[in-house]
Amino acid sequence: MHITVAGLGVSGSSAARALAGLGAHVTVVDGGDGDKQRAAAAELAERAATGSPSDTGGEGRRAGITVRLGDGDTLPEGTDLVVTSPGWKPDSPLFTAAAAAGVDVVGDVEIAWRLRGPDAAAWLGVTGTNGKTTTVRMLASILEAEGLHTTAVGNIGTPIIDVVLGQGKDGARPYDVLAVELSSYQLHWAPSLRAHSAAVLNLAPDHLDWHGSMQAYAADKGRIYEGNTVACVYNVADKATEELVRAADVEEGCRAIGFTLGTPGPSQLGVVEGLLVDRAFVENRQKQAQELAEVSDIAPGSGTPAPHNIANALAAAALARAFGVRPAAVRDGLRAFHPDAHRIQHIADVDGVTYIDDSKATNTHAAEASLAAYEHIVWIAGGLAKGATFDELVQKSAARLRGVVLIGADRALIREALARHAPEVPVVDLDRTDTGAMSRAVREAARLAEPGDTVLLAPACASMDMFVNYNKRGDAFADAVRELTARDH
Known about the structure:
Elements: E1 2-6, H1 10-21, E2 25-30, H2 35-48, E3 59-62, E4 65-69, E5 81-84, H3 93-100, E6 104-107, H4 108-114, E7 122-127, H5 132-145, E8 152-154, H6 160-166, E9 177-181, H7 184-188, E10 197-200, H8 208-211, H9 214-222, E11 231-235, H10 239-247, E12 255-259, E13 268-272, E14 275-278, E15 290-294, H11 307-322, H12 327-336, E16 345-350, E17 353-357, H13 364-371, E18 377-381, H14 391-397, E19 401-406, H15 411-421, E20 427-429, H16 437-448, E21 454-457, H17 470-488
Parallel strand pairs: 1-2, 1-5, 2-4, 5-6, 7-9, 7-10, 8-9, 10-11, 11-12, 12-13, 17-21, 18-19, 18-21, 19-20
Antiparallel strand pairs: 3-4, 13-14, 14-15, 16-17
């Protein structure tokens, strides 16, 4: 086949290498032609080919792979299939041209699904607006505690196509099951995907510029339930997730399994007196409940876990139990799990004030969950709003706010919402977008905080106006807190 791969990122390069290795003639197209794209093209050519490179300006050719830079809109002649990277919008000119030519467009997840072998590992899928990565890593930890050979793949950073094609090669032990994080982008381009079991953690407006509407965004998230064979896991507190289960076309016998921070009903997992309990995968769901773990087993040693991380743990436990994992493995897996940096990460306690880095809270839904975890907060917020509004977030969080420090390009939107819904809360508006602003923001937050308070970086915005990514923003926050610690001593 002649296959066009859209995008030179991680997933695009992975798909190009895999498809060329299977004998396809691959053309990778990318609209950029800068140093970054040329370096990626050179690396792809070097890894994919035999022989020395040819200097062809914006193109390089090796062993079945051609890279075309500076033109991501034109469909290469003779294309039989387009494989897109997740971020390319459905209305991109390349895809419009493909539709006109009768050529299908799919994503790397779809290709991975099609290329599974006859004894392929089961897929346990996770999606949602927030919490996907944490839940998938919790799930993988639980599966490992059961003794299963597994890994966390997909949107989490490891291209799933590499894992699928590498299973059992060179004597490697085949995977028993995969914990698969899936974004709405990936689900949009994966029409054939049929998971063993899957969860939608929550739904809130996000990426609407890509999907076009909340309805389209939700529909793409809901694709994860299509064809599930054992369990569709939903959030009892988020009715939209349950509605997606109701709308899904699943295999006969597949069950709807809810998770809740309250007392669970039949076919649900929940919390009772500090315990995670299961009333779904027990013999008598009406009368029995199985203890799985203590709430304190979630990220042990970090204090009481935030409510949304308890919810994440319940979702992970539900998927693991759907796969037959024992209760003890749920407990052991949660105890062994350690959250990634910049996700409700405790940095330090200084003068009786706790400093928490949740730089990963890049939208209002994530920030709301973060703010709900603490009683008295000095909130550091702001950045690129991505079209978001902040009135509902401020209304729900106003009673918890001791003060607010605003940074970033779109901070005025948050300041205006605070003026409308929390006019009594002191606000420091830092009129600067350089990376050094974080040090000043932390000093101002320390001035506003009282002993027992939490200074919380939960920006509710993207970072690219000031930082390369949310990781760098979180690092700057941690560095600034350490400056306080140094001065304190």
